[in-house]
Amino acid sequence: IGRTAGNSEWDQDQWEYYLTGPEDLRYGDLARSLVEQLPEDKRHDPFMQALAIKLWMDEHLTYSTNERHAGVEDPTADFLFGNRIGYCVHFSHAAVYMWRALGIPARVSAGYHVQQDEVQGSTILIQGNSAHAWPELYLEGVGWVILDIAARQNLDPPSPPMDGELARKMGEWARDVPEEIEEGGESEAPVSRQDF
Question: Tens of pLDDT along 7-25?
Answer without folding.
Answer: 999 999 999 999 999 999 9
